[in-house]
Amino acid sequence: MVSNYAHGYREYDSDFSDEEEPDKNAKRKRSKEDEALLKKPFQKERHGKVAHKRVAAEEWDREEARNRRFHLISMDAFSRHQKFVNDYILYYGGKLEDFKLPKGDRKTDLDIIQENHRFLWQEEDEEEMTWEKRLAKKYYDKLFKEYCIADLSRYKENKFGFRWRVEKEVVSGKGQFSCGNKRCDEKEGLKSWEVNFGYVEHGEKRNALVKLSKLLLHFIYKEPTCY
After folding, report:
1. Is 227 exposed, middle or buried (0-12, 13-18, 19+ CB in 10 A)?
2. Which intervals carry biased composition (Basic and acidic residues) (predicted)?
3. pLDDT tens track for 107-145
4. How far is Cα 175 from Cα 178, in angstroms, rounded to an integer?
5. pLDDT digits (tens, 9 = 90+) for 55-64
6. What CA–CA distance (Å, rounded) separates 199 from 120?
7. Alpha-carbon span 84 to 71, nearest angstrom
């Protein structure tokens, strides 16, 4: 008969076992609280084990997406368009000639703006806004509508062309601190005038009060000295 004492199976009781266990739990709790206090807001959790393949794959995809986004933002609009076209042909097939428009139907942004531009936009003009009209309206909003620039090249036919100033002309003072005629840069003897501008736009006759900065001699002699 084998004795349990020989194999170490005898159970030993200790008077201090019940007291040591709460002390260990208290120390472990205090260490966790200290770690929580010392943890920085931006500090990531420490992983004791190797990340799962799925977690690593998701992190890799996010990093690749950030790199692609940064690469696309750094490109200009035309280069980005070329990349999208090349990627489409690469993954879905096709030919580059399929993306080329006929020469007769090709229009630039400037052509769209010229076709839909308005000297003054009114409420009824914005009722049915197509993307062409929105493009023209976006250009119109960037103009400075205080002083006008005048085209007097056809003044002998009693025809005058007015347009609003762009940012470059506002910075240089053209039309306000110099003559409002686009072909004149005279800065002496100026006077501001508010005139009634009658024009035909998209088959509709309209009127608008515009402010001009002109040479006083232009109106005294009834004939522009610069045109």
Report:
1. middle
2. 31-44
3. 888 889 999 999 999 888 888 889 999 999 999 999 999
4. 5
5. 888 888 889 9
6. 11
7. 13
The whole-angstrom separation of Cα 226 and Cα 186 is: 9
Rounded to whole angstroms, the Cα distance separating 123 from 145 reads 17
**Cα–Cα distance list, 93 to 45, 100, 102 (Å):** 46, 16, 21
Q: Are 208 and 120 a contacting pair, CB within 8 Å?
A: yes
Beta strands in 102-221 (DSSP E): 144-151, 161-165, 190-201, 204-215
Amino acid, res. 59: E
Beta bridge partners of 149: 163
Spatial contact of 181 and 224, defined as CB atoms under 8 Å apart: yes
Which pTM value belongs to this model?
Answer: 0.52
The DSSP 8-state label assigned to residue 181 in this structure reads B
Contact call for residues 212 and 190 (beta carbons, < 8 A) = no
Q: How far apart are CA 227 and CA 182, in angstroms?
A: 8
> What tokens does 216 get?
């006083």
What is the spatial distance between Cα 209 and Cα 193, in angstroms, rounded to a whole number?
10
Which residue, 156, 151, 155, 145, is CA-closest to 208?
145
On whether the CB atoms of residues 112 and 135 are closer than 8 A, the answer is yes
d(CA 109, CA 127): 22
